[in-house]
Design a protein that fits this description.
Shape: globular
Oligomer: single chain
Helix content: 10-25%
Number of helices: 16
Largest sheet: 8 strands, antiparallel
Length: 923
Amino acid sequence: MHTSLFRAVFEKAIRFRGPLLAMEGLFWGGWRSENPPRSPLCKGGKKSDELCEGGRDSGVLCEGGRDSGVLCRIGSGTPTNALRTLWLGGESPGAWRAVSNCRGRLAGWGVGFALSLFCTAFAFGGGAGYRMPPKAIADLIDAPPTPIVSLSPDKSVMLLMQPPALPSIDELAQPELRLAGMRINPRTNGRSRSRYYNRLTLKAIEGGAERVIGGLPSNPRIQYVSWSPDGKRIAFALITKNRYELWTADIATARARRVVDRALNAAYTRPFEWVSDSASIVCKLVPANRPPPPQAPETPTGPTIQENMGKAAPARTYQDLLANAHDEDLFDYYTTSQVARVSLDGAVTHLGKPGVVRTATPSPDGRYILAVTTHRPYSYIVPASRFPRLIEVWDATGKTVHTVADLPLAEEIPVAFGAVRIGPRSVEWRADTPATLVWVEAQDGGDPNTKADVRDRMLTLRAPFDATPRTLIELGQRFEGYIWGDDSLAIVSEWWWKTRNQRVWRIKPGDASSSPELLFDYSWEDRYNDPGSPMTRRTERGTHVLLSDGGKLFYRGRGASPEGDRPFLDALDLATKKSERLWRSKAPYYEYAIDLLDVDALKMLSWRESPTESPNYFIRDVKRDRLTKVTEFPHPSPVMADVQKELIRYERADGVKLTGTLYLPPGYDAERDGPLPMLMWAYPQEFKSADAAGQVTDSPYRFIRVSTHSPLLWLVHGYAVLDDPSLPIVGEGDEEPNDTYVPQLVAGAKAAVEEVVRRGVADRDRIAIGGHSYGAFMSANLLAWSDLFRAGIARSGAYNRTLTPFGFQAEERTFWEAPEIYFGMSPFMHAELIDEPLLLIHGQADNNSGTFPMQSERFYHALKGLGAKVRLVMLPHESHGYRARESVMHMAWEMTEWLDRNVKNAPTREPVMGESKSVKSTG
C-alpha cells in the first residue's frame, strides 16, 4: 500500500469525523454485533489475522507488538502529531511507526474507523518493508564472491576480476527503458541490470605477489574487460554516473587511465574491439552533440496499428517489445552510434556516419571493418535480433567496399526448434586468415519442417571481396558453429532437434577439392559419450584458433560417467579419428582442465575443488603427475565445510534410473537426530531416450558453494536438502515427452520421496517442493497432481500455458496443434486440486520469455478465489533472477517463514502422505 493511499484514508476520516464516531469501536472495542465477522477486530484476540491488543504474531497490528511490521506504542501527543507519525515517521523502508497512547484523542476526531482500515491494509497489503532472514542464512547470502579469472595471451599472467557483493535496490531502481527486447539505462546509455567488477588484480602464473591495478576511481564499476593482442594491456569500460568510458591498464605498471573523453554507446552490444596492432581500438561512441532524447507526445497523434495480410508469423512470448512510434524513436536515439578508431593516445578517427550499429568488428589484419547496422521497419512482435539488418565491409576510412546482405524484417520465422532466418547469418571473419569472410545460408527456407537433403551451406569470400563466394561445406542438419585452425584444418558442427543428434566435421578450407571428414556422430543427450570441446590458442592478431600438435587436437570435457562427472583431457588423432586419454580427474577431487600452458611438456592450468576445499587454480604437470597451487581463494562460507553431501541413486517405478544430490546439515546424525524436514529443489528436463535420462548428471566431489538463490541456504536452518533430483520427461520414438508429462513428473517425485524416507533422513510428512522458472511450473503441478509434499515454493514461473501459445520450454507444438497438452500441463487449469500451501514469488520486472509477472498474479487470484492457502510476493524492480540484496534477503525471509510454518512446525496430517491424486495423462 502506498503513502498517498493511507493519507487519503485519514483525510477522509477527519473530514467526516462525526458520522464515523460510531465506528470507532471497530478498532478499540471490537465489533458491536451479535454476529461478528470471521476475522474480528478485538481486544485480546488470539488469531494471527486479528487486529487486537496483546497480539504476538508478526501480521498483527496491536499495542505491544514486537515485530518491525507491527504498529506499536510509540506515538504520543495530539492526533495531528499521531497521524503525522503514521505517514512521515517510518523507521525503515516500507515499515511504519504506529500511534497509540492517544486513543481518546483519536476517537474524538472520529478516525478510529479510518485507523482500522489503515491497520488492515498495513497488515495484509504487504506494507511491512523488506525483511531479513535468520542471521545464519543472511551470512551465507553475504559471503564474498570468488574472483573471475582471465589468462593473458602468453599464458603467463592471470587477471583476477572481483565481482562485488549484491547491489542495493537503489541500483535496480535506476531509470530503465524497455525497448525491442533490451533494457537500457538512459543515464549511462548502456544496458541496465548489467553485472560488473569493482577490482582488478594481476597475478603471475609462476608466482609472485598480487598487484592491484591502480589509477581507478573509488568503487569502480568495470565491464567488458579484454586483453590486447600483444598481452601488454587490458581495455575495459568504466561505468560512471552518466556514461560509459573507455579505459586501459598497463600490465607492466599495473596502472589504469582513461583513453578518451568520449562516451561509449553500450546500449546494443559490446561497445569496443581491439585492433590487431594493439595500438588502437574500434569503438561505438555516443554521437557528439547529440540532442536531448525524444519526448512522448502529450496528445496521441493516432492509433497504433499492426496488420497481417495472410502470412503466418508465429512468435514466442517475447518481453519488452516496442509498442508505438515513440518507442521506435527512443530505440533509434539510444542505439545510434558513431563508429570510430581510437588510438591509445586518445586520437579519434570517425568511420562512416552515425547509425544503429549492432557490431563493428575489425578484420584480423586490421584493414577492414565488418559492420552490421539495424534499420527500419521495426516490429512490435519480435525483438531487435529479428529487425532488418545491413551487413557490410568497410575499409579503414569507413567507406563501404562490399555488401554481404541487406536482410529484411524476420517476423515469419517458424517457432519450431532449428528454425532460422533466410539469408546470410553467422557472418564473421575467419580467425586464421588476414581478411576472409565466412557465413551460413539456409537451404530449406529456414524451416525445419521442410524436407531437404541440405539444410545449411557454409560459404567464404576473401578480400578484396570481388570474387564469387565459395562453398566450404553443405550440412544435412542445422549449422551450430565452427572453429578455425589453418587452410588444412577447421571444425564445423551441426545438430538436429528432433533426433538430438550432433555431428562434427573436419574440413580443409584451403582445398576446394577435399571432402569433409566426420569426426563425431552422437546424441547430445548421451553425456557419457560426449567427446568434449576442442581447446584453442590465441594468435598474434588476438583471434582464437584450434590448438593442434603433430596432427592432433586436444579436447577437454566434463567426463560424465556412472560414478559422476570426471573431467578429462584427450588427444584426438586426426588421421585415425581415435582419442587418447591424457588425463582424468580422480576422487576425492573434481578437477577441470582450463588451458594447456605447455603442449610438449603437457602442463595445464586446472580448476580443482572438493566438497570441503574451495575451488582454486593449479598447474598440473600431467607427465610427472605434479600439482602446484596458483591461487589461494579462501572458503567463502566456513560453516558449510561440515555439510554432508552424497550423490544418491534410485529408480522410478518404470525402471528409469534417477539421481539427486543429498545434503544434510553440519553435525547431523540420522540415528541420533531422526528424520528432518526437507526441501526438494528441482527442474524437469525432457529426453528422447530413457537410457540418456538415467545418466548421472553431477559429481560427488564438487565444492559446496551456496549461491544467493540456492536451496542449500536452509541447511543452516535445520533442513535437509535434496538438490536437483532427476525428473526426466521421456518421449521415445514418435512420442513427445509432454504427452505424458504429469504421470512421469509425479512418478519421478514419488521415487525421490520414497528414497529419502527410506534412508531415514526425511520426514515423509514434512517435505516441501520448490523450483524457479520451469521448476516453479513443476512445483505447482506436483501440488495439483499429488499429495507427496506438505507445501510448495514457486519462483518466477508460468502457470497458464495458453498464455504461451506458440510453444514453451522444449514443447514445439502450438496450442492449436495440441490444446490438450497445454490444458493438461497448466496448473492454473487445475487450481482446484491444490490443497497444500503454495508460496509464489515473482519479480515485477521479469523479462524472461513466457514468465510474465501476470502469470503469478492470475494464478494467485485463482487460488485465492478457490480458498487455497497461498501467498504472493512481487519483488519491485526485479527481473527473472533476483539481484538486489534487499530482494534476495526478503526472498529468503519469505521462504524461511513459509517453510517453518507449513513444513517444519506443521502437525501431522491425514491421510498418510505419498498417495497420488487422480493423475491423468495430458496426451
